[in-house]
Model the fold of this input.
Amino acid sequence: MEKKIVIAGGTGFIGQYLQKKFLEKGYKVIIISRQSPHVPWNRSDEVIQALEGADMLINLAGKSVDCRYNEKNKADIFKSRTDTTNILGKALLQCQNPPSLWINSSTATIYRHAEDRPMTEEGGDIGTGFSVEVAKEWEKAFFSFSLPGTRQAALRIAIVLGPDGGVMTPYKNLVTFGLGGVQGPGTQKFSWIHVEDLYRIILFLNEKKELSGVFNCASPDPVTNREFMAHLRNVMNKKIGLPTPKWMLEAGAMFIGTETELVLKSRWVIPERLGNAGFVFQYDTLEKALGQILAK
Done:
């Protein structure tokens, strides 16, 4: 019988990468999305049918946080995460043969701004502010479902690096135009993960039937913003990188319609649970990750 994976919200950078990898492994991949021709969110019968008999459900749905945090956008960011998670949970309860694993996206931004020590699943401090509240409500919606036939894992994902899109595009542009210096103080930690390792974590969790709950998805080699930009300039062979002070970031963020939190928050996140379970990162250092991504 054909193996089936369902990716909800699977039309973005990460979803497209996962779809390609699972297709290569011989899976049938079904996407749930507002975009045609995929299974639409508002057709519960079609969502249930998609999930029926699937090996795994991966939910990545949610409006991008790369926007200004005005009231409308904030409401949309919340709603797009909690509503879709609730739709999926209710659909799974209706399934005769539900997937044995439900992986729901979360975010490493759930932890506080940390420059003093790394945040683990067990010992990390949950932060405050809008982005943290979104993450908390997202996970609350996810774990509110009790599903006897389905294991649940929430992935607290750090900044995802990979070829052909994602955050690498704006970062490469900054370096190309000579603006690839320190952003803000430069001491803020930059926790990251290569998109291939994110895919490998999903395979790992699928195999390890005893694992459930929350998992930090971040490389074991977090760096500072200063180190990240220096590595990037080095790989791209650009000697000059002008720094961007906080006031300039604030002005620029307003101009391009985003928030400085995406750059200035110190995310110092360690994948303790994955490490303890025996997961080995293919891209455990930034040098390896950037070397692969920019080897073109």
Summary: The mean pLDDT is 95.
